[in-house]
Backbone:
């Protein structure tokens, strides 16, 4: 497992989501799929999200079981190791329909961790 603090990992996830949001802002699916640079940038940031998610400690993942942590990590593995299997339709669905809810959960996780840490002192 990663030696990075879980808050840093969650920050990595939020930064990657922010980039994806900026990359696709105002785009239709057709515009997205026709722009190789944006597709590549989005997929790369989904890889970052998946890698960071793999390193979130199991006890933290368990507290936020609404997140399909395994699927987040599996997408990263497909994107890295079987890039030819990446389906642009699935990428679009992830970034337009699933990422907003995931972002809200990660933001809540960070907030909860900050509260938990401040109560420890």
Residues:
């Amino acid at each position: 497992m990663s030696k990075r603090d879980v808050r840093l990992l969650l920050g990595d996830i939020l930064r990657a989501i922010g980039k994806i949001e900026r990359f696709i802002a105002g785009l239709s699916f057709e515009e997205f799929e026709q722009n190789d640079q944006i597709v590549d940038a989005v997929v790369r940031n989904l890889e970052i999200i998946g890698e960071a998610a793999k390193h979130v400690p199991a006890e933290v993942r368990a507290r936020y079981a609404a997140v399909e942590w395994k699927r987040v990590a599996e997408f990263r593995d497909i994107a890295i190791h079987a890039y030819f299997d990446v389906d642009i339709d699935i990428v679009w669905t992830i970034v337009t329909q699933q990422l907003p809810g995931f972002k809200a959960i990660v933001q809540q996780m960070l907030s909860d961790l900050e509260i938990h840490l401040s109560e420890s002192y």
Notes: The mean pLDDT is 91. The longest helix spans residues 88-119.
